[in-house]
Amino acid sequence: MSTDLTRIGERARRQPDLVFTSLYHHVTDLDNLRVCYRLLDGNKAVGVDGVTKEQYGENLEENLQALSDRLKRMGYRPQPRRRSYIPKPGSEKGRPLGISCFEDKIVELSVKQALEPIYEVFFEDNSYGYRPGRSQHLCLDTLGRIIQQKRVSHIVESDIRGFFNEVSHKWTLKFLGHRIGDPRILRLISRMLKGGIMEDGLVKASEKGTPQGSILSPLLSNIYLHYALDLWFNRRIKKQCRGEAYYFRFADDFLACFQYKGEAEYFRSILNERLEGFGLEIAEEKTRCIEFGRFARSDARSRGQKPKEFTFLGFTHYCGKTKLGHFRVKRRTSRKKLAQSLRNFTEWARKSRTVLRKGEMLRRAKIRLSGHLNYYAISDNSQMCSKYRHYVTRILFKWINRKSQRRSYTWNGYLQVLKWIGWPRVIIRKNLNPHRRLGAF
């Protein structure tokens, strides 16, 4: 990040009510555009024009100068995004993505770098998604500590139905206008939002939504939910509660923790009305209020029931206990995520056997397993990670032996190869034990 952009963040921190009226020159600056070009990954999918980073870089200075000139005279118009789909549980078609052209990615990143320093000092601490220095593990760690150490007895978990497809352009620009007073920035973002989607050769106008896959979408979604949810909870809901109340959000996934059942049920009852005011809707079938905390296990058993569980960020949270019998929040990979990961690995192995050599197939399988363990190998989740590793090992053995009519490996030979390449073992990557000392995370 350039020195000028760093100073923007410092000014935003010193003057919380400052409206920035002159930002556009940072977006059009040739040096900033050049930095954005270098930061972009050249292996990502291409947009509707099919231009790669390598092709764009063949005449880099001429292309960047022409882009800067078009931006300065407001003659730049983003091309439609290419519609693509990735697997999504419960959906035959999959999760829709919008793939921008490479030049549009440069502009998106330039805008993001101009806005992010302003909003990073403005966002609430209970927002974790797509922010520098914050992660799912940090969110899970803080959530576990709050439930473990504070007076939490009830959880409200919810889901926004099709959030990225339902974001209102009008509200987005209105929210941006609270801190951004440069009309050229707002006009550029408006053009990006309304750039359209190309699918099956046809361009469809974008009346609402901010497409997943866009570099700018995570920041815009955080700004949107900052005003729609974060501030509302911290300045209205929390202050009205007699007991303790806490809130956690990662992108469009969020939940709230309460001391008293009545206050949790009240929040649940008015949540949909609040979101409807901003063009959003909660998924009623995924929204509920449950008893969860240090007394949930004993209370449930006194009624002849099992204590409730909830799922957040791919983990099922449940009421466990320590070796001494004290309450402790524990987590395991949700069954839905485990099944999805195994399906994805099976599909990858089935397709890879025809296009990859055995050595490359083993190397990439190792990377995929390591990626899964880097996220899911946390405290108390060794059993589910071992289960995933076991199934992945057998799936890979099955499909690597179908590369030809002759079997590639015996089982013992296969195990020797896995040992030779350093097949990942299940060890705890992230210690989320709430009793550990802080500073070790």
Can you offer a commentary on this structure?
Helix content is 49%, strand content 14%. It has 17 helices and 11 strands. Strands 2-1-4-5 form a 4-stranded mixed β-sheet, with no helix packed on it. The protein has a 4-stranded antiparallel β-sheet with strand order 6-7-3-8, with helices on both faces. It has a 3-stranded antiparallel β-sheet with strand order 9-10-11, sandwiched between helices. Strand 4 (197-199) and strand 5 form a beta hairpin. It starts with a helix and ends in a 20-residue tail after the last helix. The model has no long low-confidence stretch (mean pLDDT 90).
- Strand proportion, as a percent range, falls in 5-15%
Helix content bin: 40-55%
Low-pLDDT regions: none
Gross geometry:
globular
